[in-house]
Amino acid sequence: MLTSKVAKRYAQGLLDFTKESGQTDAVFAEMKDVVKLMSESKDLNKFFLTPYIDANKKTEVANEIFKSFSPVSQNLIRLIIKNGRESQLKNVAQQFINKVEDINGIQRITLTTATQLSNENIEQILKSTNLVNASANFDIKVNVNPAILGGYILRVGDQQIDASVKSQLNKIKKDFQLN
């Protein structure tokens, strides 16, 4: 998914500010909460995306939802709403998380499988490839997608290994069509 320039700019501004004030770790945890909340609550997303609800009402709701957050995070959320960018709130939070993880040298790994795997199997997959730096810290997200039929799709940063049965079948199909 492409992230907008708006989200990247807000995230960079927040990162610069938190570095100066020494609040990066606290805001990092709060931005993780924002992403989690926005991912889990369809109603909250609909509320923020509704154009006929004015910014003042959205700000009141956001103040109540995020009242336990630090003033820095609260001010960012209010600023985003005031500027009419509430549709980008989750993206801004995710971009901030990504930037902090990049600074800390954390690799983001996404593993998509057809069925749920054990931790041992996940470790074997990670060890079998040279994309994963064994000495680095990593944040792994495991997705289950039965549509890939079997195998796995491993994405590390901007590199991907597609060892899924579906892609293998598609490759065979394409070869048959060419011959």
From TrEMBL:
InterPro entries, A to Z: ATP_synth_OSCP/delta_N_sf, ATPase_OSCP/dsu
This protein's UniProt keywords: ATP synthesis, Cell membrane, CF(1), Hydrogen ion transport, Hydrolase, Ion transport, Membrane, Transport
Keyword Disulfide bond: no
Lipid bilayer topology: Peripheral membrane protein
GO MF, one example: hydrolase activity
Similarity-based family: Belongs to the ATPase delta chain family.
Function field: F(1)F(0) ATP synthase produces ATP from ADP in the presence of a proton or sodium gradient. F-type ATPases consist of two structural domains, F(1) containing the extramembraneous catalytic core and F(0) containing the membrane proton channel, linked together by a central stalk and a peripheral stalk. During catalysis, ATP synthesis in the catalytic domain of F(1) is coupled via a rotary mechanism of the central stalk subunits to proton translocation.
This protein's name: ATP synthase subunit delta
Native organism: Chryseobacterium indoltheticum
Organism ancestry: Bacteria, Pseudomonadati, Bacteroidota, Flavobacteriia, Flavobacteriales
Recorded name of the encoding gene: atpH
